[in-house]
Amino acid sequence: MTIEVGDTVKLTARKKGGPAKNVLIIFGDLMVVERIKDSVLFSPKPGPWLLVTCDVGSGHCRWINVEDDRLFTVEKVNG
Known about the structure:
The protein is built from 1 helix and 5 strands, in the order E-H-E-E-E-E. With 79 residues, the protein is mostly beta strands. The chain has one domain (8-76). The chain is globular and about 30 Å long.
């Protein structure tokens, strides 16, 4: 799965409850990829890391590890 800046991705919570589920309830499960990095300062996990934003203009953004995020799984929607 190749994800590029501008792609839409669908986030799925790894658990049925908790903070990930709350994010999806508030902001929805579709996010737009704004940036892609191989590493981030706050985690020793290797990338790719995606900076995703809610596509409804809420300003909400978060970093997601494509391979090993503790809260979400990532699925490319378009392309």
